[in-house]
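ugh ok so i messed up the first submission bc i forgot one of the chains. this is the corrected input, ALL of the components this time, i swear. 584 residues overall. if the numbers dont match what u have on ur side tell me asap before i send this to the collaborators (the ones from the other lab, u know who)
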Amino acid sequence: MSILSVKKLTKSFGGLTAVSNVNMEINEGELVGLIGPNGAGKTTLFNLLTGFYVPTSGTITLNVNGTSKSLGGLRPYIICKNGVARTFQNIRLFKDLTVLDNVRIAMHKNIKYSLISSFLHLPSYKKEEDELIRKSMELLEILKLDHKKDELAKNLPYGEQRHLEIARALATNPSLLLLDEPAAGMNPAETAQLTELISWIREKFNLTILLIEHDMSLVMGICERIYVLDYGMVIACGTPDEIKTNERVIKAYLGEALNNA
Amino acid sequence: MKKLFNINWIKTLVSLILTFVIIQLLISFNIINSYLQSTLAAICINIILAVSLNLITGFTGQFSLGHAGFMSIGAYVCALITLRVQTIPGFILGVLAGAVTAAIIGVIVGLPTLRLRGDYLAIATLGMAEIIRIIFLNMDSITNGAAGLSDIPQITNWAWLFFYTAGTIIIISNFIKSSHGRACISIREDEIAAEAMGVNSTRYKVTAFTIGAFFAGIAGALYASTFNFIDPKIFGFSKSIDILVIVVLGGLGSISGSIIAAVLLGIITTYLQAFANIQMILYSLTLIIIMIFRPQGLMGSKELSLSIFSKLGDRFKPKKGRV
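and heres the new structure output, hopefully the right one now
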């Protein structure tokens, strides 16, 4: 069953159509890649899916646990509550907060105690906060960041900041995870490690993943299907092998990369 | 974990009682005379104002220049009530009504203006405070216009001031340490990321603004009851700036910083009275010097806590093998 179904999605900024008539179906449990030359509209599509832009036209439907919900035009925090989490191309951590706080904030939507309880630190505060720390530490352990829980996010090395972004997105307990260039700025060894991590968390958390990436070793290595965007339009969709041999894709994008290689 | 919580709680309680008793004794022995008592009251009121503005500006990152507006609402509501009911219950009711009214205005003002960011929000809140001031100035029949309200019954004493000041500090610092407080801080850090992580940024900005307005209302009510005279001039633009100066000087995002700065500026102002002519020059010079050497404020965004003392103590203890 498709967890995300995008139909005729269009976004124009004045005269520029950044995303044009995009149709996309992502099945539950799939790992789908989204590639395309710079300025093809990949991040704009992510911003539409997560509520940072309102679509000019078209629909976005999310099907989780048998209920379907239209996401177009909802505020980002509501989309997050419905089970869509994302990371950012240019890391957007809460820089001056600790690693633990970064994760705890992402778990805030589960908190049920009232404002009054937060003023007076009533028993409900204590109970839920202890539970919150326990869950956060569990997650940090999985991503091997637990020994750095009191470190400020900005003091982490670059690779670990990327990991923390993923940890933070996982903390919102998503069904669909959108990764915006998770390997940007990483060396080949780090990219290989990240590739492993992505397929591992997918199993562990039962995730459906859509990822934007320029690093072809990562995309071709783990994605089951790939969508190719050019000038805001989907020009191809298929398995990595099909994409590698697709003429339109080679013309638009991969042709150069293959010649260079 | 549970045990640690209790120890911290006892430590807080003991230090609060000690502070209260020591100053109460100093007042009883007239070491703090009636002149210094008014300084003490001003310091307490400034602490409440600065800590509550710090929640809005320092922790949630919303630059507000309208704090004196909320203060004036608390002051007028409390004054009008205590002028009619000149008893302690009347005073308690006055403070509460003042704070609640300020909080309600906080919601009404916050909902539209908190969509703005940075400088724009500062201008909007500045305008809001001016509107409130002009309204008080022109409601002659109720507020007595520019002449102000005088002979407000003086019910506050050190005990009341201490109760409200300590209450404000405890409630706001508890809030900051809660998940709701962290949601506010995440907005300051990165509003876009906060929204993406499920934080309703509008709701938490308005929440912080409303809590801040509530406590500014309390401060205003205490001001009216301590100095038994108020007029609209007191709550002008310069009052908002005074509060902001304390917050920035103490450190944006540090509650203990706000407290230290309020006490320090209160003492400096008192001792500068001796140099009446150049008082403001010396005061401003002090601010400039502190800002040059500590641009992040006295405390930065750190908190002063009892654990610092125990850490210092650890240095002198014989070292045990650590794993």
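quick check: Chain A touches chain B through 42 residues (CB under 8 Å). that seems consistent at least. The mean pLDDT of chain A is 91.
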